[in-house]
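[Meeting: bench + compute handoff]

Bench side (C.D.) handed over the final construct sequence. Compute side (W.E.) agreed to return the predicted structure before the next meeting so the bench team could plan truncations. Sequence as handed over:
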Amino acid sequence: MRWSGCDSAGLRAYFCAVVKLVVEVKDSKAEFFLELLKSLPFVKAQKAEKAGSENAEILRSVRSAVKELKAAKKGKLAGRPIQELLDEL
């Protein structure tokens, strides 16, 4: 039994497996790497931010939190006392 849509370089497969990969790339090289992947005929590539608006918002939020944490650890940003944070809850 053959499945449609499983062509790769003109070859037909009896079954088709798809593997999704997560690759971490420096921001400065991300556009280049994405274009490189898109140039390959057997790869469907997109930025994680474009995968879904909810996922993109979560990703932006996590990135922001990590930047703030790093700044606080370096003493560039004042942290909040834990009791103050707990009182808000």
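W.E. noted at the follow-up: The two ends are 58 Å apart (CA to CA). C.D. will use this when planning the next construct.
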